[in-house]
Design goal:
By secondary structure, this protein is mostly helical. It has helices spanning about 1-15, 45-60, 80-85. The mean pLDDT is about 90.
Amino acid sequence: MNTLFEQLITDFHERSLPELTLRSVDLPALMGKIDAIIGMRRTGKTWFLFQIMRQYLDQGIAKESILYINFDDERLFPLTAQDLGGIWDL
């Protein structure tokens, strides 16, 4: 499973972010904490995350410092909680 996670992360780092229509929504981030975006299906959560990633890149943060995994990717099925622990080992 770690090889698959490595491939997914590499794929993300090699692709450019999609073209975005910027929205005026702010995420009240807390330093040292993980941000979670929750909401109903198909409401723009992923695109909002892409917008945040674009802001980070524009601030000079390296794309390799951003971790993005789409857990709807069919290559991850069947994913278990134990498999997720391997992400931190990469």
